[in-house]
């Protein structure tokens, strides 16, 4: 089973996540969670690369509230990128945003191209975190920032049976590593001023509220998007998600760091 029967990030899934997480967002928490990720970050005037930008919700918030200079968003999913481009026009931000469909793999940018790399809940889809962080370090200017939120796991052992059942139900590649591993990789990649934050407690409570809403006030809207069978499937996935948050194996988290000024 997967969230919908149409593959990764297709129209039904995008519409479902719009109902549950809001327009422009394919991950939980909306602008409030982006504010949490951005705590203490001065991004004014920075050029930003958003890896796994989804439908652009974070890009628009970074431009409006944090006064970044521009955001380039990259994502392998064509419908996601088209939606981001449409929303950029709706938000009158098409002159300061670029959304590009990319092939997964090394970043196709010259050394020292950006002042900041941002990403929210996308690294879990990228298998080689070490290569990814080295590549990000390469394309950041000296003094550049990496600011990330990701779905992580409590450790780097193979997933428990319960966790594997949840991942199988999602039907997505979920190659989650631990916050500790990210910290070690950032240190090894010559980043400095590393800050990490575990968000398990927050998302456990939020996911419970999301399920209450899906089963309550949002039920009809979800039903309209998915039909009965897939609505029941989505409810089952949310229950599995809450289960792995409750046992502490699924641990969303944040990290940020600076590329040492050379
Ligand atoms: C959970 S969504 C989050 C999207 C967006 N960052 C947000 O918070 O709304 C994960 C995104 O990562 C994208 N993705 C999957 N594999 C990727 C890869 N190898 N490189 C970059 N993005 C990827 C997906 O297409 C999807 O849009």
**Poorly predicted segments:** none
Rg over CA atoms, rounded to whole Å, is 18 Å
Instruction: Give the neighbour order of strands across the main sheet.
Output: 3-2-1-4-5-7-6
How many structural domains?
1
CATH architecture: 3-Layer(aba) Sandwich
**Sheet/helix structural class:** alpha/beta
How does the overall form come out from the CA principal axes?
Answer: globular
Give the distinct bound molecules: S-adenosylmethionine
The mean pLDDT is: 95
Q: Please work out how many helical segments DSSP would assign.
A: 9
CATH superfamily: Vaccinia Virus protein VP39
Estimate the strand proportion. Answer: 15-25%
Largest sheet: 7 strands, mixed
The number of E-state strands comes to: 7
Quaternary: single chain
CATH class: Alpha Beta
**H/E topology pattern:** HHEHEHEEHEHHEHHE
In percent, how helical is the residue content? 40-55%
> Would you give the CATH topology?
Rossmann fold
Task: Walk me through the structure.
This protein has 262 residues and is α/β, with parallel strands linked by helices. The chain has a single domain, classed as Vaccinia Virus protein VP39 (Rossmann fold, 3-Layer(aba) Sandwich), CATH 3.40.50.150. Helices cover 45% and strands 19% of the residues. A seven-stranded mixed beta sheet has the order 3-2-1-4-5-7-6, with helices on both faces. The radius of gyration is 18 Å and the shape is globular. It starts with 10 loop residues before the first helix and ends with a strand. S-adenosylmethionine (SAM) binds next to helix 3.
């Amino acid at each position: 089973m997967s969230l919908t029967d149409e593959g990764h990030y297709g129209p039904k899934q995008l519409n479902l996540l719009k109902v549950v997480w809001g327009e422009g967002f394919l991950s939980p928490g909306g602008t409030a969670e982006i504010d949490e990720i951005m705590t203490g970050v001065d991004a004014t005037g920075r050029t930003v690369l958003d890896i796994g930008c989804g439908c652009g919700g974070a890009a628009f918030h970074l431009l409006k509230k944090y006064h970044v200079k521009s955001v380039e968003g990259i994502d392998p999913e064509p419908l996601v990128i088209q939606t981001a481009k449409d929303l950029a026009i709706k938000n009158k931000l098409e002159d300061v945003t670029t959304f590009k469909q990319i092939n997964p793999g090394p970043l196709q940018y010259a050394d020292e191209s950006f002042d900041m790399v941002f990403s929210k809940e996308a690294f879990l889809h990228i298998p080689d975190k070490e290569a990814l962080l080295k590549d990000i370090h390469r394309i950041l200017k000296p003094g550049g920032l990496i600011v990330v939120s990701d779905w992580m796991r409590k450790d780097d052992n193979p997933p428990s049976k319960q966790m594997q059942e949840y991942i199988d139900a999602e039907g997505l590649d979920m190659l989650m590593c631990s916050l500790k591993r990210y910290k070690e990789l950032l240190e090894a990649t010559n980043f400095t001023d590393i800050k990490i934050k575990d968000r398990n407690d927050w998302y456990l409570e939020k996911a419970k509220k999301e399920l209450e809403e899906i089963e309550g006030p949002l039920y009809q809207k979800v039903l309209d998007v998915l039909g009965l069978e897939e609505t029941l499937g989505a409810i089952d996935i949310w229950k599995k998600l809450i289960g792995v948050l409750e046992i502490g194996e699924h641990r969303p988290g944040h990290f940020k760091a600076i590329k040492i000024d050379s």
